[in-house]
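Data availability excerpt. The first of two example chains:
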Amino acid sequence: MDQTVRAVQTKAHGIHEPSIGEGQNVLDHTTRKWKTLFLPPKLSRSLFSFVIEHVEGELPQQPLIDEAAVNRLDHVVLKTSDANGFVTIFRDVLDIRLALDKTMDGSKSRVLFFRLNKTTIEVIEQNNNGSGDKLWGLAWAVKSISATRDRLLTDGVEVTSIKRDLKENTLVATVKSHTHKVPTLIIEHTA
């Protein structure tokens, strides 16, 4: 965290010292401590963002006991009218790996994929999108998309049929209700 703070402070103004946090597990009374650096709106492009470092204790790893459960956040999708601004902040300031920078043939869209651990931050630039930056969608990884879809349908959630995604070895379904108007996918990686 200290290295991140120093790096960000040399490239941006308005960076404060990290906040210290502490929590206690109610089951076994173990304590975790962490540092949180809240990014100022100018640096985060007005998207609420923070950096967190766990400094003591561990998050308990829960075994995936239900193949119909969400496993993890696969990717988050942001829309922008300024992809270069995201490259400057995510790659150059925050040192997040830019895995793909591609202009889509036949359209006026540019797509950036930043990789952070097992999560992808996908940024879609559309020049006709003058509304600034915004969260546009979430994709949740699941072990069994058919089991997850069946569970959601049973719970009264509208979900499209399962289809092959553009990315090889992936199946997707779109969650159509209960998302607070945030486009939401469930995704299974088959390989």
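And the second chain:
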Amino acid sequence: MTTPAHAPPPPARRAPDLRLATLVELDAGRLADLGVDGVLLDVDETLVPAGVHEPSAAVAGWVAQVRARGLRVAGVSNGAPKRVANVARAVGIPAVSLAGKPWPGTFRRAAARLDLPPHRVAMVGDQWFTDVLGAYLAGLRTVQVTPLSDGGLPHTRLLRRVERRLERRRTHALGATDEGRSADGVAQRRG
């Protein structure tokens, strides 16, 4: 059975819309290219490294700049309520903890809290399984960033190894480049 050319790729082969080294590389031009009015942010390893309780000045500045441009921003994390609330407060955004990612309903509810339809929201996170896949299945645009540290919980480290293996297979199956990404898989705009 063949898939029509206009059909989206199956979830197991779905790459994020953008892949960037850090959150602060996600500039206004890239957000405009994605066609979004809102941004959902993962907390651990996207806003702050494991074990760090306050975001860097660069991250706080990025959030302020995006909000000043009129985009709606919120945090969505599976992390503990106190930690998530403290990080979100430090950058001035609302956040949901113990969110239940990667379930698509989690992302749809978060988009609704921004008063936006899912297709007008981008999810930015460091994990393919937790952030990219769930957001994709919910109809959001997706941006995957490199984790801020090698730390994290044991199951997160295990999932990262599985994600790297799947990415190598996906890249091999699709050729050296896919949707404008460089052969090394780093951050290229999709046109």
